[in-house]
Amino acid sequence: MINFIKKLFSNEGKAKDPVCGMMTNINSAKYKSNYRGRLFYFCSAACRQQFEEKPGEFVG
Ligand SMILES: [Zn+2]
Questions:
Q1: What's the CA-to-centroid distance between 2 and ligand 1, angstroms?
Q2: Where are the beta strands (DSSP E) in 1-60?
Q3: Is the pLDDT of residue 51 over 60?
Q4: Cα of 32 to ligand 1 centre, how many Å?
């Protein structure tokens, strides 16, 4: 039961890279960008760069 609960919350601490859709770890994320008061996390500098050029394309 405890393992089940842990599994349910295993997505905590992770965020989706809006550019490529990969899950990134918030705690170890190197690539972040703030857009309209929201913090986005990226798997790589290339993804972050793409996002910062046209954030409106990745955020609905
Ligand atoms: Zn990415």
A1: 32
A2: 14-16, 23-25, 31-35, 38-42
A3: yes
A4: 11
What's the residue count for the chain?
A: 60
Looking at per-residue pLDDT, the higher value among 60 and 8 belongs to 60
Q: 57 C-alpha vs ligand 1 centroid, how far in Å? A: 14
Please give all residues whose CB falls under 5 A of ion ligand 1, grouped by chain where several chains appear.
17, 19-20, 22, 43, 47
Average pLDDT along the chain:
89
Give the Å distance between the CA of 38 and the centre of ligand 1.
17
pTM of the prediction? 0.78
User: Is the distance from CB of 33 to CB of 39 less than 8 angstroms?
Assistant: yes
